[in-house]
Amino acid sequence: MTRLEHRVYELTVGQLAERSGVAVSALHFYESKGLISSRRTAGNQRRFSRDTLRRVSFIKVSQRVGIPLSQIRDALATLPEERTPTVADWARLSEAWRSDLDARIRQLERLRDDLTDCIGCGCLSMSKCALANPYDRLGDEGPGPRRLLAERGAGDAESRPGGGADADCGDPCAPRN
Fold first, then answer.
1. Same domain for 75 and 119?
2. Are strands 39-40 and 10-11 parallel, antiparallel or unpaired?
3. Is 51:19 a contact under the CB 8 Å cutoff?
4. Per-residue confidence (pLDDT) for residue 122, from 0 to 100
């Protein structure tokens, strides 16, 4: 990897790609979506400020935990364009995302724990399995894994695996009546 000299304030798209580990095409995509910005030289070549490296790192990490690009763009829009963001700027952004990130962590922990309880889904415990959906009853509630996506309430029988007292734990693959 090419080491940038300290006095280099702008990077070409190739240098940014090499330093960030992100493909040039992805950088162009990020720019087209307003996530990063560049200036053009007299020869119409892109030049990115060095702090774009931090922004690209933030984009990569945010995407890795499942945050949509629209939310990432909105967060980056809170950072100053005219100067390199300070620790305080990043701290404000972090604080704004704290509750959403905490909710994502809880959801991932619940998914991990629910899947651990479900051995191969034959299913060993229809009354505990968060994936059980006898007769596709949850289809009326909307698309997706309803029980895995919903936050469980402490006393909410419908949100618990098994679906409450009236849940029929017959053949989950049988057609609905």
1. no
2. unpaired
3. no
4. 57
169/136 Cα distance (integer angstroms): 11
Q: How far apart are CA 46 and CA 94, in angstroms?
A: 29
Give the tens place of pLDDT for each residue, 33-71.
999 999 999 999 999 999 999 999 999 999 998 899 999
Task: For the chain, state the CA radius of gyration.
Answer: 24
173: which 2 tokens? 């693959």
Separation of alpha carbons 123 and 115, rounded Å: 11
Are 9 and 39 a contacting pair, CB within 8 Å? no
Percent over 90 (pLDDT), the chain: 44
Residue 72, both tokens: 């990432």
Q: Output the pTM of the full model.
A: 0.63
Using DSSP, state whether 165 is helix, strand or coil.
Answer: coil
176, part of any domain: yes
Query: How far apart (Å, rounded) are the C-alpha atoms in residues 11 and 19?
Result: 10
Task: Mark whether 109 and 176 lie in a shared domain.
Answer: yes
Residue 26, domain extent? 10-85
Please give the single-letter amino acid code of residue 31.
Answer: E
